[in-house]
Write a structure and sequence with these properties.
By secondary structure, the chain is an alpha/beta fold. The chain is 37% helix and 21% strand.
Length: 492
Amino acid sequence: MQEYKLFINGEWVESGTGETFDDFNPATLELMARLQKATVNDVQHAVESAEEAFDSWSSKPAPLRGKILFRAAQMLEERKEKLSRLMTQEMGKILKEARGDVQEAIDITYYAAGEGRRLLGETTPSEMPDKFCMTIRRPIGVVGLITPWNFPLAIPAWKIMPALISGNTLVFKPASDTPLLSIELVSILTEAGLPKGVLNLVTGEGNTVGGAIVHNKKVRAVSFTGSMETGIRISREASNDMKRVSLELGGKNPIIVMDDADLELAIDGVLWGAFGTTGQRCTAASRVIVHKKILAVFQKRFIERTKKLKLGNGLDERTDMGPLINNQQLQKVTGYVDIGIEEGAKLAFGGKTAGPLPGYFFEPTIFTDVSPDMRIAQEEIFGPVLSIISTDSLNEAIDIANSVVYGLSSSIYTDNIRNAFKAIEKLDTGITYINAPTIGAEIHLPFGGTKATGNGTREAGTTAIEEFTEIKTVYFDYSGKLQKAQIDVEQV
């Protein structure tokens, strides 16, 4: 068991009070680490360090910033297996998924490093002679980043790397359930040559540390991934200082299975979409909407496949599904199973904790006879609980899919190209997959959703830079005389 400190202005330091919290392995309940609880004053120190480093870092040519990120990407690649095993121990996801999480971090780091030779603006003709018009991208300033526990390396990298290449300096708060991967990432970036003060890490309680970041007037922007309730509060409170806020919140993601679908392919996809990462993904498939013509055979085969899933410690390569992250999440999932039964849904499989395993294990759970208005079909559970809903037609399936407050990811299994394109057009989500589950985003494409999933921002891809830059419009008049736009324009 190791003890870790805060990272402020290039140094590992204790918090103002020296108070700590513990980090446990959710599969074994073993104590992994002890970490510092930052105070409001610690956050203030981190913000001041970032502010002091901003001028130098933002003035460094972007391709040179990119060289640091390239070195960091190479280090991540070299240490992939070590980081993956640490992630499985700290977060619980199975080893092959942990390797995928680390690979996402590697990919976004390389991608963001390459943006150092683009950071594209635009040029356009002026309406006046001897006048040049263009836009350029400028960093925002000090940015606060608040990340969740379910992708403890990928999501921090999704935010940190585009923010750094854009020239911002950062105050970063990782989730208290999975801070160790963030500490490793900060250490790698420091080793790669990131100057002191550019990236500061503060660990601790969300209300104290996250709140101090949101309320600090020198923090110009906040990027948050987490629950809808917390996102709404951050948006409301940050608006008092006119901060830019980027929110990536929840999902209640549907998979539609039409009667013309490849049934085995659909079952493969729903199994992975519903129970991959133990359902602890914002893109997890928590609803499957199945055409009534194939409903009986789909349910029978799907339950048979689900029964074969092996629960256990993710370090065992034979394991299919690891634990939930903590006891609070275990109780939440258990509560939703009770709600589903009370609402009249049929518990077809699972529904209870998985003993005699010592950790926070919960069986993959399937509800049938679910109506679209039930709470288990409307609310984000964030666990291995799937609702199967019957439909008569594609139009009805789309209406059911769109009936929730969220709009992150969606999927349809069909061999009919017309069905596919209608789903693309009508499903009110930021992401739609055809003949693939609702999970599996790639870093060079925008990621985000509609409705209560966020506030319209997108992460990754070209939009990653948009999240962390301001656009400045530039007019360069070389005519040598006063030209009045819209007044001196020659009329044809």
